[in-house]
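Reviewer comment 2.1 asked that we show a complete input and output for one of the modelled complexes. We chose the alpha-L-arabinofuranose case, as it is the one discussed in the main text.
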Amino acid sequence: MGSKEVLRHAALCLPLLLISLGCQCLASSEFQATQTATLKVDASSQLARKIPDTLFGMFFEEINHAGAGGIWAELVSNRGFEAGGPHTPSNIDPWSIIGDDSSIFVATDRTSCFSRNIVALRMEVLCDNCPAGGVGIYNPGFWGMNIEDGKTYNLIMYVKSAEAAELTVSLASSDGLQKLTSVTVPVAGTSNWTKVEQKLIAKGTNRTSRLQITTNKKGVVWFDQVSLMPSDTFKGHGFRKELISMLLDLKPSFLRFPGGCFVEGEWLRNAFRWRESIGPWEERPGHFGDVWHYWTDDGLGYYEFLQLSEDLGAAPIWVFNNGISHNDEVNTAAIAPFVKDVLDSLEFARGSANSTWGSVRAAMGHPEPFPVKYVAIGNEDCGKKFYVGNYLKFYNAIRVAYPDIQMISNCDGSSRPLDHPADLYDFHVYTDSKTLFNMKGTFDRTSRSGPKAFVSEYAVWRSDAGRGSLLASLAEAAFLTGLEKNSDIVQMASYAPLFVNDNDQTWNPDAIVFNSWQQYGTPSYWMQKFFRESSGAMIHPITISSSYSSSLAASAITWQDSGNSFLRVKIVNFGSDSVSLTISSTGLQASINALGSNATVLTSSNVMDENTFSNPKKVVPVVSPLRNAAEQMQVTLAPHSFSAFDLALAQSALVAEM
Ligand code: AHR
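Response of the prediction step:
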């Protein structure tokens, strides 16, 4: 470039540079704009109200492989070879063979010893001089098995061979080349099925392993119900520990299960059936969930959901099919057997160990009843032709048999009274962030008579949510502050969906993302942590004064934790300005201690920021001491942030009625 050209270039660029600098200044001065606001809390006991103990809980749906290949720790996928359907030969996916056509022939047939899941796998070894490593079958689990060095895995399988055989069971890398452990399993020659139990101890770690069963000996061996479970599961109950610990961390007060649409099915023949999901795991037929398009062996069945509720310290909420799917319905005139089926399910949960169904539960290891106090009669079926008719049949029968059970209708009672009796009505909302933020006032206007609301599914979705954005979590937090304030009429709320296996994201976004060995919470997961002390706490009226108040949402509670008491002020700053906020509290029965007070903030530099496996803590709450905590105090709210200010109370200041 010559000197003239340089000058000409500079002359052209300078204005652009100035414009761009100007823009930057404008942008940064916009960023730095500080709004002011005052938030007053009236913590006097006369105006305090107890939040229901049940307010914040969880909704678990078998969606996104949340259960099979998720919290249920079974490593083998399609363990009974039933996923390909009852007609043989059938697809054995994801099982596959080791060897080629000349050395091995595998096919399903209907010779299982289990009558409810009759399909088994026949493996014929054709080679006289088989390859050194043998031929056989392998199962890659759910996108690879997480096998960890030093850990024990319990293998159970059923085998049959007319002649004595010798099998090698191993855990290996996905290409079979790296062996993590290997054991020899002799099979006696008999015409009967034999149960094989073997412990496998891994001598290495591989996150995408497979289970292999091979042999070098010509002959025929049948296999069925091949299970591989890590020995180390939550309370020994079969749940993946690290995923359960994320649930425990939110202290859920209830667990709604097992769906959602999963309960309904696209067609009734594919809906979840509790009866098929109980008893010995080997005898469960499994089923294809046609809404979310995958097979489940139903190792995570009705009993396990009840057990999970107990393990989480959460009240079970059983959502049962009411004779309605997405595409077909049972006429109310013919609903009686479905009603009987549900009564049996309640006897299974609540009946004595001597009752018909209670004895089945007891035989499974739980003689004490499970305290089912809530049931939902269907999911999102209001408006369907036979909904109200079927609902009333279920409602009346359950009311007589279990008068204390609270029943949840699918019909939204927030805008108009229901035309049928109910204890609660279900309310679902998936929307954009602005709409949900503004919905914080939805229940301000609902009638105080009639059934209470169960907001059993809420989330920001679509473009505002990304794959779990800060923006979504802020709007959801605002919405929840509204539910807290209206918790005289809103009795329960849960985010949806809870889990996603990253390999099968049918529904986006979700609260917890995992694969075979990693997991992280989206901002929507972390947002819920701010509300975990709310159930059973006292809520206090607040007022916000600010010209910016349309971007703010807040609530105030007092809560106790092992002898310590706190006033917690939560506030969402949904706007892009920072806010200088004065918090003043009156009516407290004790003074505020700076020591032990702290602030927790969920924010990030970009409102669309998300967590990922590589950066799982990009958007997580950050806790810091609140040294200026006092009856009147000044704090700064970052743009696009959610903050909780926990003010330690000098003595048990919680109103006595708690
Ligand atoms: O949460 C995902 C789905 O959303 C649920 O299955 C259904 O109830 C709702 O439509």
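Residues 96-230 form a domain with the Jelly Rolls fold (CATH 2.60.120.260). We note this here for comparison with the apo prediction described in Section 3.2.
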